[in-house]
Amino acid sequence: MKVSITVNGKAYTKDVEPRTLLTDFVREHIGLTGTNIGCDTSQCGACTVHMDGMAVKACTVLAVQADGSDVTTIEGLASGGELHPMQNAFWNEHGLQCGYCTPGMIMSSVKLVENNPDITEDEIRHGLEGNICRCTGYQNIIRSIQAGAAAMGGGD
Amino acid sequence: MYPPKFDYHRAGSVEEALAMRKEHDGKFLAGGHSLIPVMKLRLADPGCLVDISRIDNLKGICPDGDTVKIGALTTHAMVASSGEVPEALPEAAKMIGDPMVRNRGTVGGNVAHADPASDLPTVLTALGASMQITGEDGSRSVGADDFFTDLFETVLGEDELLTGVTVPAKTAGTGTAYAKLPNPASRYAIVGAAASISVADGKCTAASVAIGGLLPATTRANAVEAALVGQEMTDANIKAAAAAIADSLGDDVMGDIHASADYRKAMAPVMIARAVKTAVGRA
Ligand SMILES: Cc1cc2nc3c(=O)[nH]c(=O)nc-3n(C[C@H](O)[C@H](O)[C@H](O)COP(=O)(O)OP(=O)(O)OC[C@H]3O[C@@H](n4cnc5c(N)ncnc54)[C@H](O)[C@@H]3O)c2cc1C
Ligand code: FES
Ligand code: FES
Known about the structure:
The complex is a heterodimer.
Chain A: E1 2-7, E2 10-15, H1 22-29, E3 48-51, E4 54-57, E5 70-72, H2 85-92, H3 102-115, H4 121-127, H5 139-151
Parallel strand pairs in A: 1-5
Antiparallel strand pairs in A: 1-2, 3-4, 3-5
Helix pairs in contact in A: 2-5, 3-5
Chain B: E1 7-10, H1 14-24, E2 27-29, H2 35-40, E3 48-51, E4 61-64, E5 67-71, H3 76-80, H4 88-94, H5 99-104, H6 107-113, H7 120-127, E6 130-135, E7 138-143, H8 144-147, E8 148-150, E9 153-154, E10 161-168, E11 174-182, E12 189-200, E13 203-212, E14 219-220, H9 222-228, H10 235-242, H11 245-248, H12 261-282
Parallel strand pairs in B: 1-3, 2-3
Antiparallel strand pairs in B: 4-5, 5-10, 6-7, 6-10, 8-9, 11-12, 12-13, 13-14
Helix pairs in contact in B: 9-10, 10-12
One FE2/S2 (inorganic) cluster (FES) binds at residues 37-40, 42-47, 57, 59 of chain A.
């Protein structure tokens, strides 16, 4: 089936099997491998992307469901050669170890902060319910998101 | 992990969805947050999916006099931020999974799937909601008490579409609440309790309490309700009334690797008391 999905501002039209997942669409069909697949069972959030302005788990969305949508992946956050403030914050605050969860963490946290600019630490912790990190113990991730929120213009 | 192969059809209206389902012997796809995972695990292999997620008139929350209609395709995130429905509903919706699950999962899909660990069946049962169902031969409305029949079983026929859920509007003197003991990983309910309590002069005048997560299908806690009505809503009376759940659970309490049947039984009165107490505070 033909689907047309705009990814990071560029329109792609591809012929895919209906069972193609959005993770595979971005990774295999258009070669953007920044979106990671962790659990592949809707639990870990490593595959989080933005679809029509909302954070979604791309391993649990079919490409045919995203037909006509506007998708942003981790590759699309930076603009004009400048990292997104949340990406910089993860870098500066060392919000990662192996980095596997990081694309999903950053995509989730950008939406958490956009939807709630003055987000509290408690709200960050709750907001990360769907993102699992097996390395950091979360402490530096929380710190990064607080710094990212401040850099995005809010933060407590 | 790919789901098994299937044909895909996208419906633009309820009529089209019903016709496509019949022609292709398909299964409806809403948010896909129960169906896609079970297909990946090969627990379902429908052969054909009829995507209903773009039927726009099934999305949204619409107050209508003393009731509120919630379209089947309304997402959990939309319910979570709604001030128009009784408090227990946004409270429960906020506890579903995580933000990404709430952005995709729908009220209709949650109710039709009837996972015993789901939150909305319990809340809708306590609220006395009714389910709006449309099939080829017309529409019918079924009360939540009669809708959920067994593990993943409802009265919905394969050829019927759930179009929405109707709940009573918020009323002065009545408070509603949901309390859940979540599975720490998935957030599904190990035990969930919902209550709608009417209070006048400190005494309970009407009570509707439902319990889920530990039985194959969510169910009303009739013994607890009877023990609440007429009582002063003190902590001690609420606790004593909640204890009445013990006798009515029967032999159907489920245990698994996450929580034994005994543990769930012990937690049932705790969650019920919490829900009732919060509901009383909101009445
Ligand atoms: C990681 C994770 C955590 C979760 N945690 C929770 C939780 O804590 N609490 C909770 O309650 N739920 C939880 N869920 C389930 C979530 O709420 C699902 O979104 C919901 O159960 C199904 O809704 P859906 O729109 O995704 O339906 P789908 O997956 O699209 O469909 C589910 C089933 O319902 C049928 N169906 C869907 N819509 C209709 C309709 N309108 N008429 C007739 N049949 C229909 C489909 O044919 C299918 O059989 C979780 C899910 C995930 C992935
Ligand atoms: S890979 Fe999608 S949630 Fe884990
Ligand atoms: S940094 Fe390794 S999983 Fe989070």
